[in-house]
Amino acid sequence: MKRGGILNRHLAGALAELGHGDGVLICDAGMPIPAGPRVVDLAFRAGVPSFAEVVEGLLAELVVEGATAATEVREANPGAAKLLDGHFPGPGLTLVPHERLKELSAGARLVVRTGEARPYANVLLRCGVFF
User: Fold this and answer.
1) Which of 30, 70, 110, 125 is the most exposed, having the fewest neighbouring CB atoms within 10 Å of its CB?
2) Catalytic, out of 10, 20, 87, 98
3) pTM of this prediction?
4) Is 87 tagged catalytic?
């Protein structure tokens, strides 16, 4: 058994398969999940695991060169907006209308569903390279 890091075998395996430019959607329990991408559903109950826990856990494991979230997050979920601003300052975070985020999510290679039950707690990460 792994000593640390991500222990969920489905998530650990999916992360190991990602390459440069691949998209990873981290979404709340209400986000429609597109057909096609691999899905790892971590939702246990409302709020568990939280969006923040999953974002921070995945950022510890991935190299990310950019992120996209819904413009609506600023007003509807200031906590998620603050979290994203903290991890992707300045040009690191692109904001698009929620409907556009859903369209972009269809191109993700991996979807990680959290138990988050607050609106617009979603982000699409673009993988980078470690060298």
Assistant:
1) 30
2) 20
3) 0.94
4) no
